[in-house]
Amino acid sequence: MTTLANRIQYLSESETLAMSRKSRELKAEGHDVINLSLGEPDFHTPDYIKQAAKEAIDQNFTFYSPVAGYEDLRKAICIKLKRDNNLDYDCNQIVVSTGAKQSIANVMLSLVNPGDEVLVPTPYWVSYKEIIKVAEGKSVFIPATIENNFKVTPKQLEEAITPKTRVMIFSSPCNPTGSVYTREELLRIAEVMVKYPQVTIIADEIYEHINFIGKHESICQFGFIKDQVVLVNGVSKGYAMTGWRIGFIAAPLSIAKACDKLQGQFTSGASSIAQRASLKAFITEPNATPDMKTMQLAFRERRDLMLKLLSEIPGMRLNHPDGAFYIFPDISWYFGKSDGTTTINNSNDLCMYLLNKVFVALVPGDAFGDPRCIRFSYATSKEKLTEAAKRIKEALSQLN
Ligand code: PMP
Ligand code: GLU
User: Which of 168, 213, 220, 235 is 20 to 30 A off residue 185, Cα-Cα?
Assistant: First the structure.
């Protein structure tokens, strides 16, 4: 019998993708499932980007690209970073990968030795913990509570740092909470982290363009910390391009070179066609076409609608998300309640109850390090959101 390696046995399946798979299976059986589990825009990729991909095929961009990405794409990313974020990077500090997920894995594998500690503000995005596991690092969770709108304080971070700390990873706007760190909050974090130059910050900015409180703030803007930060971004969320699988890092040169080397052995680089499409996305000013504005507006309206609908359900303790497309309410009020058949002991039970009873797919907070909560992705139509909230309210009213 085949014995799989320990690293696979210890690795958990991505719970966001698992819930999405379950919801697809139920749909295939003929159930009317509303899937609010996956963090994926429901919009189509804008036409001008699709056109660039079609042209790339006709122009025979069909060979291996340089491992770190085409030079003109990396230059376009530098232009984007200057234009949108006022950040100066050189083209050789950029590495393009098969999604931001791979970018994060590259960086983690490049920096973390077995037993090294990685600071992970909680709630965190589901894959951080598992990527750290693959790198044989040790996750050190720093709990942020709903009272603090799920943001960690610089003091908490400093208290968690030990001589073994190598990395700190966080997202802003945050998946799963939608919280957005302000410029001042990032500055305070930077002021702490600069005292520990052995610690690299991975700043996951994949939700840059889905921000309802103004301009995106990057921790890289503070010159004194920039050499200690790896910025991660990509096209999946802001450009509705999840399936194209393009992400990138902007990093200190040594880390960029390490990721280039690693990726050279793992993938040889990202898809050539998707890279040409992403070049078009980055080179075009976000406001030059109506596409991004339309999506941003829709996400904001959906956020407002979802907050309103959920606030009408008893026992939902809501956070106020300022970005991304998630709401992460505390639903622990329902723990211990039962509909006579099923008893809800945790957020996983509640998720399965809602999936099996009213066919609404969500993700339990355990997946993100907070078992009292549940994640709603509202990246779907208002009609579906309204129907989902109606079903959830009805199902939860049967729990006593
Ligand atoms: N970081 C966060 C916080 C995410 O939510 C996602 C979503 N998949 C990713 C990274 C990875 O994005 P990509 O599709 O570019 O791999
Ligand atoms: N990031 C999205 C989510 O959290 C997509 C799924 C995934 O990549 O895990 O739902």
Answer: 235
The whole-angstrom separation of Cα 345 and Cα 184 is 39
The predicted structure's pLDDT at residue 16: 86
> Is the CATH number 3.40.640.10 carried by domain 47-283?
yes
Ranges of residues in the chain whose predicted pLDDT is under 50: none
User: Helix, strand, or coil here: 320?
Assistant: coil
CA-nearest of 335, 247, 341, 236 to 295 is 236
From atom 2 of ligand 2, which residue's Cα is the shortest distance away?
39
Nearest CA to ligand 1 atom 12: 100
pLDDT tens digits, residue range 266-324? Answer: 999 999 999 999 999 999 999 899 999 999 999 999 999 999 999 999 999 999 999 99
Q: Which amino acid does the sequence have at 350?
A: L
Ligand 2 site residues (CB inside 6 A) read 14, 16-17, 38-40, 101, 126-127, 175
> Residue 360's pLDDT is what?
97
Q: How far apart are CA 130 and CA 366, in angstroms?
A: 13
Contact 242, 236 (CB under 8 A): yes
The pair of structure tokens assigned to 351 is: 């998720």
Residue among 343, 334, 342, 398 at smallest CA distance from 371: 334
Domain ranges (residues) in the chain: 6-44+290-396, 47-283
Query: Distance (Å, rounded) from C-alpha 93 to C-alpha 78?
Result: 9
pTM: 0.97
Task: Pull the structure tokens for residue 117.
Answer: 């500690």
> Which of 11, 17, 233 has the most ligand 2 atoms within 8 A of CB, as the residue to mutate?
17
User: What is the predicted pLDDT for the residue at 317?
Assistant: 96
CATH superfamily of 6-44+290-396: Aspartate Aminotransferase, domain 1 (3.90.1150.10)
